[in-house]
Structures are given as C-alpha cells and as structure tokens.
Amino acid sequence: MKEYTFNTDAEVPSDLLATMEAGWKKDPPAEYTAEEDSVDQLEEGGHRYKKSYFGYTMAVAIKDGDGKTVGTVEVTDKIEASGMDELN
C-alpha cells in the first residue's frame, strides 16, 4: 500500500481579492476564513503502458466574519502513483 499527503498552494482570483480588499477598506479588522466546500477524488490512467495518477479537486469557500460566502477557489493536485510513499 502507498500513501501521500498533499500540500497544495492556490492563488486567490483577482475578482475575489478585490472583494476582500473592499471589505478591508470598509472594515479594517475584517477577517476571512477558508473552508472546505466539496472534494472530489481523482484517479487517472492505470491502463497498459499508461501511468496511474491519484489526486483531488477541492472547492474552498472564502467566508467573511459573518459566515457569508464571498467567493470560491478551486484547488486541484495529483501525483503519479510511483511517487507515493510506501506504507510500512
């Protein structure tokens, strides 16, 4: 068996960043949080002579201090099966 821990960075889209900056100008101590909205497992390849990849696509909801969603960021990552760590 194999395992892998993903550590993925994502860029905040410019329109969402503009919305957040407007919130900071209106209320300087405004805070935003990122929360997992949905996750889909990704599995590709695995056919003869084709490499296998495993990964995920996750929607991350950006919420303001009142818990209202101001935007969503999609994060995706995958790794080749041979690059995963062996379990002991």
Major β-sheet, in short? 3 strands, antiparallel
Task: Determine the mean pLDDT.
Answer: 88
Helix-and-strand structural type: mainly beta
Task: Please give the share of residues in helix.
Answer: 10-25%
Tags for this model:
88 residues; mainly beta; three-stranded antiparallel sheet; two-stranded antiparallel sheet; 15% helix; 44% strand; elongated
Please characterize this protein's 3D structure:
By secondary structure, the protein is mainly β. It has a domain at 32-80. The chain has 1 helix and 5 strands; from the N terminus they run E-H-E-E-E-E. A 3-stranded antiparallel sheet has the order 2-3-4. It has a two-stranded antiparallel ribbon with strand order 1-5. The longest helix is centred in the first third of the chain and has 13 residues, at 14-26. 2% of the residues are buried. The model has no long low-confidence stretch (mean pLDDT 88).
Give me a quick take on this structure.
The protein contains 1 helix and 5 strands; from the N terminus they run βαββββ. With 88 residues, the chain is mainly beta.
Topology diagram in text:
Blueprint: E1 2-3, H1 14-26, E2 33-44, E3 53-63, E4 69-80, E5 85-86
Antiparallel strand pairs: 1-5, 2-3, 3-4
